[in-house]
Amino acid sequence: MNISENNVNNYTILSLQGILNASSAPKLKTYIAGIPEEQSLIIDLENVEFLDSSGLGALVGIARKKKTSNTIMRLARMNERVKKVFEITQAYTLFDIYDDVSAAAGA
Amino acid sequence: MMMFQPQQELKKRGQIKTPMNPILSLTLQADLRYVRVASLTACNVAKIFADFNCDAADISEFCHAYELAVSEAFTNSVRHAQPSQPETQVTVRISSEHRTLAVCIIDANPPFNPVTQAPDINSYPEGGYGLFLIHQLMDTVYYARENNTNTLTMIKQAKMTYTENTWTINPG
Questions:
Q1: pLDDT, tens digit (0-9, with 9 covering 90-100), for A83-104
Q2: Are residues B121 and B14 in contact, defined by beta-carbon separation less than 8 angstroms?
Q3: Is A89 on the interface with B (CB under 8 A)?
Q4: CATH of domain A2-106
Q5: Do A54 and B75 touch (CB under 8 A)?
Q6: For testing the chain A interface, which of B68, B74, B78, B136 should be mutated: the one with the most A CBs within 10 Å?
Q7: Could you tell me the strand order of the sheet in which B21-29 lies?
Q8: pLDDT tens, B11-64?
Q9: Whose CA, among A31, A80, B79, B90, lies 20 to 30 Å from B152?
Q10: Which domains does chain B have, with CATH numbers?
Q11: Can you give the pTM of this predicted structure?
Q12: A60 chain-B contacts, CB cut-off 8 A
């Protein structure tokens, strides 16, 4: 999995690309750990080809920390395969989810 | 929601039938690096199977179900492998019968309780989704413990809406 970062409107936008599973989730956690806790975050999922519950667990863990520190975390551009995992587990209830990144950064 | 039940018990009652035609058996080192090999293999076999047995509109979802379920099951097998046995392996075995495709994940880990329930999502759990997801994605899931090995069998039936033409030879 590749992670690219840019900053818009005081949000850090992380664009993930590839597979988010048990093998790659630690990379995401390590990357997030290097971002200041109070930094507002948008995770762009458009190019995530596959996500399983280990990937979901990593995102939920990040969401929990952001909630504890009262910091914004948003998800953007979920494809259908990713959406399916969020729907089955009802994890969508834990996140603010946007159809595009600019809406997530402007809202 | 279907409950996990011991394989022997279900077999005895005739509620399940394990597909009999072997397609593939793949044994991998119990290492998270190979999760993708297992899940993509299952996905690709499901794709070939679905091309012949599934409505075109449902093929993608059918294959994704196997890709995801095997990713979950294989990950669980690796995570529960005993560190004292570094050569631990996990076998993916796929078989079919008519419109039914079965994937077995076989390991020599300690026995586990396959009963599961929906995770309490409001507590922001980072784990505990795997068996629940498998259960939701598959039509039938059962667990067997035999000869010190665990076998988790995941079965799904392909849906085909048209009725096949069949020729009946009337002996009369």
A1: 999 999 999 999 999 999 999 9
A2: no
A3: yes
A4: 3.30.750.24
A5: yes
A6: B68
A7: B21-29, B89-97, B100-107, B149-157, B140-146
A8: 444 455 666 799 999 999 999 999 999 999 999 999 999 999 999 999 999 999
A9: A80
A10: 7-157 (3.30.565.10)
A11: 0.89
A12: 124-126
